[in-house]
Amino acid sequence: MSDDARAPRSRLAQRLFLLFVLVAVLPLALTDWIATLATTQVAEDLSLGARSQATRQVSRQVLDRLLNAKSLLRLAPEAPPGGSADAALTEPAGLGQVFHQVTLLGAQGQTHWPASEPASLASVWASADSGLERPQAAHSAAEVQLRLDFSLPSQPRVLLGAFRDGSLRWIAEVDSGHLWAPLTDAGLDTAWSVRDNRGRLLVRHVGEDSPLQRESDLAEARGDVVSSNTQLFLAGELGAGEWLFTQQAPRPRVRWQGLPLALWLGAVALLGLLAVALFSHWSIRRTLQPLRQLTQGTQALAAGAAGTRVEIRRDDEIGDLADAFNDMAQRIETQIGTLEGLAAIDRDILDGVSFERVAGHALQRLASRYPRACASVNWREGASALHRSWMTRGPADALLIRSEQLELDGEALMRFAGLFRDELLDPAQPAAASRQALPRWLCPGDPARVATIALLPLRHEGQTQALIVLGLAEAADDAALQPAREVRDRLAVAMAARSREQELVYRAAHDSLTGLANRYGLHQRIEQTLDRLADDAALAVLSLDLDHFKDVNDTLGHEAGDELLCAASRRLKSCVPASALVARPGGDEFILLLPGADPAAAATLARLAIAALGRPFTLRGVEQRLGASVGIALHPHHGRTREELLRCADIALFAAKAAGRGQHMLFTPELDRAARERVQLQAELRRALERNEFVVHYQPRVQPRDGRILSAEALIRWQHPERGLLYPGAFIDVAESSGLIDEIGRWVLEAACTQAAAWRREGTPLRRISVNVSTRQLVSGELTGFVRDALSHSGLPAEALELEVTESLLMGDPGEACAQLAEMRRWGVTIALDDFGTGYSSMAILRQLPIDVMKIDRSFVVGLGTDDGAMAVTRAIVALARSLRLHLVAEGIETEAQAEVLRSMGCDELQGYLFSRPVPADLFELLPGLRQGPALVAQD
Ligand code: C2E
Ligand code: MG
Ligand code: MG
């Protein structure tokens, strides 16, 4: 299949071809048309002239014959030739050739010739004469007159009558064959007709070849026939009306070699057109073929075939274009080769492959750019080691990359570090190092072939980190080093990427504050340690948490907290053995990893750590005390994986903190069980909220004087489907740590407010309902909204609600918590400080707190009457409340003695089992103290 056939039909070629053909067709067709018209016109004009002349000639010949006949008659004798009028008329001399018959009207009678003709012509003449329109007299002047006789059905007869002395003597019928002979001789393709002045047909002759064989044909063929007419005037000579001669001949056709001219012209035009088409096709193809090649070449180039060239050899503009294309393709190929080589290095950089592999690619690149050169790449590894990769040629000139590690002495290191800029050395020059004296790392490869050594140092972060040594086989100038510099720049990027990556890896695995391993680094180290560890080898994981660190952070600020963390980590590092790892996975949490440690060693380390952190820190000149709790998990007893070991250590830590902080705890399955129970409890709490399993019990607060119930504390209970009624101590901690306390607290608020509002509507004389609020509820910031909702839903006035908060609210963000309490206080809500005496409140802080009520904790009440210390503390608390003008409530009163002491101290309200245990709402309503009666002890 030819290229042409395969190539898609070119639209441009089609258009050009059509244009060429169109441009050729129009003038050819026009020329043909004009030539045909003009030639036909000339031919017709010539033919018409000839025909007119022929018509005149023929009519003249007929006239000549008539005049000849006239002469003969005029000269004819008066008497018959034989002298006897009766005798049959013998042929008068010469008349026989001209006349068909003759009648002599003599004195003796009529003589007729030829004898065979039956009748004389006298009667015929007479009838012909009578048919004349004009009177006889009009023609009398003529000696010989002509008459036409149409009496016979055949051809009309032409009669001539010769007068003598005014009388008709001779009547002769002109022989029609003789008379009309000029018509028959005039041509085979013509048709002739002669008519008299009245339009009567005298004769019609149609030539054998004439298309007008019949009269009717005339009408049909009118378009193809030309007529020429001429009139023959007979009045003067023969005393008759004029005759009209009409010649009809076929319209002339211009022909050549038997074929019409139009056919010839058409054929010539077609041939011309064909020639134009062939030429234009050839010419277009000749022009477009290389263009198509160039287009295909460009497309191939665009598709990435850098080796594309076009084979067009011409000495015109297209040849120039092809040369330019090939030149451009060559440059692109070179450029792409360069870019691909550099891109391979870039890919290495992005893939994070080793610098050795990047150096290998760099050497390959150098080998392709400097085919006759040898090269090496040298880079620093550590303090004095130099890694060297160089290229050498193997069998079949295959490129081989070799690597080695060199140890540099001080002098060599100085020399390496002293390479600042690109240098060209001539190894033969005495000024430069001689070939033998060149240190190994300055040798590019095979020194035997080297005429010039180019040194291209690579500097990173102000130091010479690597060096490209290029051994060129010929003397080279600075420009020749440009490709090598590009390679060096790439290596610089690789080196920067390597150091950046190393830094990133370090940062990813280390805590920026303390420099210890972070959670990610810790995980990596545990995994690595476990990978290397034998199945039964010991490994201790200690989870350490700073006690009260959050307080320091909250009170002294995060910067002070950071300083403290750094100091704590330093102490930890100083007390652990070198084989141990100290990590800080987050916050105030540390992990110690001690390979090979048994339980005793782990416990010792824990004690050491706790002791180290227990010593006071001096922070900005202020002494600060911390403490630490430690949980210990051991491989392989407690777990074999990172997750297991860390989880067990955390569980043990949780237990250590729950057991009173400042101590260490070894993981046990029981702890695990407790932890699991906590998790389960959490899930159950969630479900309890959904299933509405909580209830509120109410404990009265009574007037010391008469036991009248003044207010009530709402206390939550959980009606557990399996475990029965649960008290807050069994679940409030979990609710707080899981964040569920918000939802639970909201529920209690709604329930207590609704109940209190109902009692108020029923007229129960209860001044206030008191609801416990967890500090966490204040931290979340949603409490005010919940309280507002509960009040508005229940319709309870704000004054009838009291919120009990504990001193721990002063620990977190007291400002924020106090702002919320103050706002609710403005609404009329009373705020009580619960469990007073168990926290760390100072007088100064107490004064700023937005509180109305102080509740003395049960722990002081218990010792009243028996413990003097308790008595003293209680008295102090009472005095404090008095001085702060706070309403004082004592709780946990179980005995009358306790009640009596508190009464005597002037407590405003008393609360305790002595008066009533917390009871459900319906039982509360039955308490006698509610309706002014004596206080009773109720059991729940
Ligand atoms: P609290 O606010 O100090 O409540 C008083 C606790 O002392 C109640 O225990 C109550 O039954 C108990 N109590 C009262 N009088 C006596 C007595 O004479 N002797 C003895 N031994 N105990 C007495 P309960 O109901 O187990 O509540 C324990 C703690 O749970 C409460 O201490 C309170 O801090 C918390 N709590 C209770 N209900 C809620 C609540 O709805 N929300 C929040 N956040 N905490 C609650
Ligand atoms: Mg309370
Ligand atoms: Mg309390």
Q: Which helices and strands, and how do they pair?
A:
Layout: H1 3-6, H2 11-74, H3 95-98, E1 99-106, E2 109-113, H4 122-130, E3 144-149, E4 157-164, E5 167-174, H5 176-179, H6 181-185, E6 191-195, E7 201-206, H7 215-220, E8 225-232, H8 235-238, E9 243-250, E10 255-256, E11 259-260, H9 261-302, H10 317-351, H11 355-369, E12 374-381, E13 385-393, E14 399-407, H12 410-417, E15 423-425, E16 452-460, E17 463-472, H13 482-509, H14 519-532, E18 539-547, H15 549-556, H16 558-575, E19 581-586, E20 589-595, H17 599-614, E21 617-619, E22 622-624, E23 627-635, H18 642-658, E24 664-666, H19 669-691, E25 694-702, E26 709-720, E27 724-726, H20 732-738, H21 741-762, E28 768-772, H22 775-780, H23 783-794, E29 801-805, H24 814-827, E30 830-836, H25 843-848, E31 853-856, H26 858-862, H27 868-883, E32 887-890, H28 896-905, E33 909-910, H29 921-925
Helix pairs in contact: 2-9, 9-10, 10-11, 10-13, 11-13, 15-16, 16-17, 21-23, 23-24
The protein binds ligand C2E and magnesium ion (2 copies).
Residues 713, 772, 804, 834 line the site of one magnesium ion (MG).
Keywords:
disordered N terminus, 940 residues, 29 helices, 22% strand, Beta-Lactamase, 4 domains, alpha+beta, binds magnesium ion, Alpha-Beta Plaits, disordered C terminus, nine-stranded mixed β-sheet, six-stranded antiparallel β-sheet, binds ligand C2E, single chain
